[in-house]
Amino acid sequence: MADKKFRYKKGLGQNFLHDTVKIDRMITAIAPDPSETFLEIGPGSGNLTKKILPLVKKIFAVELDKEAIEKLKTATAGSQWLEIINADILETDVTKFFPKEGKLRVIGNIPYYITTPIIEMVINHKRHIKDIYLTVQKEVAERICAPEGSKTYGSLSVFCQYHADCEYLFTIGRKAFFPVPDVDSAFIRMNFEKKTPFTVKNETEFFKLTRGGFEQRRKMLSNNIKRVFGFNEEQAKKALRQAGIAENARAEDVSIINFAKLSDVIYNIQNIDS
C-alpha cells in the first residue's frame, strides 16, 4: 500500500510503481546478472531497487527527492551494493558510474516530462552503456518503438531506433502507480548493442532530414526535401530515385535504412553542387 504520510511532489512528476506483479515482470525482462553494474534513475521509495539489488554487482541510484531517499534507505537496509546519489540526473556526470569491466546498464521509472532529455543523455554515452529499460508514458513508448508506415512513426522513432534496437515490452496501467497518473505507461527496452548497426556520412544532415521530413508529414517527402535543403523539384526527385524511394512517398512510409540512404544521397548532391 502507498504510504499516506509521504508527501508526493507533483512538480517532480512522482508516480511510484507499487504493482509487484509488474515489478517482477520488469526484472524478468531486464534479466540482471551478478557481474553487472546498474544505474537506476529515480528509484523513488525503492520498490524495484530492493528486488533487483540482490541480483546485481552494484546499483548507483540517482534520486532528487531527499524524502524519497529516506524511504529508499529503509527499503534497502543499507546494502553495501547500493550507492545512493541525491542529485538531478540531468546534472549528473554519469561517466563516474561506468564499470571498469563491461558496460553500464540503466533502468528507470522516470518523470514523463524529462523522457527525451534522459534518452538523449544516455545516447551521448552509448559506447559505455549496454541498454536502458524505461517506464514511460504509453503514447511516448509507442512513438519510440513505432515501425515505418504506422501513424505513431515519426522523428522520435527514427532518432531512437537509429541509435538502438527499441522494443515495447508491455503496458502498465495507471492504477499500478501511486499517485495515479492521468495516463497509462509502458515498459520499453533500448539496446545499444544493435543487431544491424549502420552509419551515415553525416549524422547532422541525417537528423535534419528526418526532422524536416516529419514536420509536415502530410506532404510528400520531396516537398520537404525542397523546403529543408533548398533543392529544386528535379533535385529532390533525383535524390529519392537514387535512394530507391518512390517519388510520391511521405516520411512515414520510409524506413530508417532508406532515410540513411537518402541522407547520403543528399549529402553527395550537396557536395557535388557546392
How would you sum up this structure, described in words?
With 274 residues, this protein is of the alpha/beta class. The strands form two sheets. A seven-stranded mixed β-sheet has the order 4-3-2-5-6-9-7, with helices on both faces. It has a two-stranded antiparallel ribbon with strand order 1-8. The chain has helices at residues 20-30, 49-52, 66-76, 115-124, 138-145, 155-163, 203-215, 221-229, 233-242, 256-273, and strands spanning 16-17, 37-41, 58-63, 82-86, 104-109, 129-137, 165-172, 177-178, 185-191. It folds into two domains: 10-191, Rossmann fold (3-Layer(aba) Sandwich), CATH 3.40.50; 203-273, Helicase, Ruva Protein, domain 3, CATH 1.10.8. The protein is elongated, with a radius of gyration of 21 Å. The mean pLDDT is 91. The chain has ten helices and nine strands. Helix 9 packs across helix 10 (256-273). 38% of the residues lie in helices and 18% in strands.
